[in-house]
Amino acid sequence: MIGVYRELEGTMRLAAHVLRRFWVLRLPPVAEEFVRQIYFTGASATATIVIRGALVGTLIIAYVIEVLNADVSLAVKILLWVVLREIGPLIAAVLVIQRSGTAVATELALMKISGELASLRHMRIDPQDYLAVPRVLGIALANMALTVYVQFIAVGGGMVLSAVIVNTSLGEMAGSFFLLASPLDLVYSIAKSLLFGAAIGVIACYYGLNPPGNSINAVPKAAISAVTQATMAVMLLNILFAYLVYGSALFGLFTAAQ
Amino acid sequence: MSAAAEVALGYEPLAQGAGGEGRLWIAAGGSHVVPAVSALFKSVLLSAVLELKPRKDARLVVLGAEVGALPPRERAGLRAQMAFLPANGGLLSNLNAWENIALPVGYHTPARLAGLAPEVYAMLEQFGADPRSLLARLPEEMTLYERKLAGYVRMRLGRPRLVLAEDPGAGLGAGERARAGEFAGAYLADCPDGTFIQLEDGPDESG
Questions:
Q1: Is the pLDDT of residue B206 over 50?
Q2: Which positions in chain A have a beta carbon within 8 angstroms of at least one beta carbon in chain B?
Q3: How far is the C-alpha of B162 from the C-alpha of B191, rounded, in Å?
Q4: What's the CA gap between A28 and A21, in Å, rounded?
Q5: Are A178 and A77 in contact (CB under 8 A)?
Q6: How many CB atoms lie within 10 A of CB B170?
Q7: How far is A214 from chain B (nearest CA, A)?
Q8: Nearest-5° angle of CA A233, CA A235, CA A240?
Q9: What pLDDT digit, counting tens, does each position of A220-233 carry?
Q10: The pTM is what?
Q11: ipTM of this model?
């Protein structure tokens, strides 16, 4: 229990440090780390996103139309609610946890064990400034970009593929989509994905900078902790967002049923 | 007790057994070799000096200042005048030699970055390295001498007044060892009022 509290406190402290010291991004070496992180988390992950996004979109539309026997309007509505608001940010977050969460935790834990963090301190460079700030902000920004990309591919690709697989017209689906979609959906998912990305970055950096020991065995342990805790954090944040958006409506349903 | 003025580095335990068996008192200026430093004393000394946090039962003097009596802000100012050169160069494995060398300058004094390359080239050539080939390589692609040299160049760019170095020649062949032996002289030619302290390893304690 004390360990859990300590980890939670450490993660919060690191998050506060990143918020307090984000200006270090103007320093050239930190800016380089930031750009590298965006490239690694965002740009190099886009290829894997395409297939997953298009498949999810197709699956949802095909399932709703064929299995639930719904009309195009309802199918697009579900696509909008599920993909744009929920699945898009979640898919991007899971992908970022798998790729960047593990990579960051492993890299930082290895740096700690091999004495590279001590080298940074000898140069009077705060490892949290140089390593954590650009990684957390880079992952947050890249996760947001990936989320928008997933949404675009899942919705667009889903509608295109569904027009081929299921007996509906692409124009009809696109028309329903633009009728139902609101800019607020995009704002909501962007806010969510930024927070997901920041949480993943902070947790991965925390476990990387604080591996459980100084032997090589501590490296996979740090990566495992980062992945499990980041997944948990993303789920909890998702619930929190769902409560903030749908909470009062759900509460209304619950009281009405009573 | 010895006087603190004109002292580059002074460390003495105030009680018997505090901080290992060691005591060190080095005058400011020039190059000094501290022979046969035990691993324990080296660890205690480096930890106290690099963090400027002496143990309560030990006295630490750095560049004429009694560290125990200094407020935190002045300690930070004092720390900025010191550098440590580890035996392996202390490079970061995911940065190439140029990025490693330029890192502290880019972090502490970014304005200097623009004119840094000629300075780095000159220093590397002075010690027989080809800058064009060396600077693009990662530490894992460099020899031990090249890693030490990159760490040394990085240290010199900071123009510290006090350098603590682990034996620069450790682990090198005769030719490279001779070149690494010139590190202190080249630093002092650049910083005439500086002090270069070389800590040589004691007998192997691993048994």
A1: no
A2: 27-30, 32, 107, 111, 114-116, 119-125, 130
A3: 10
A4: 15
A5: no
A6: 14
A7: 17
A8: 90
A9: 999 999 999 999 99
A10: 0.87
A11: 0.88
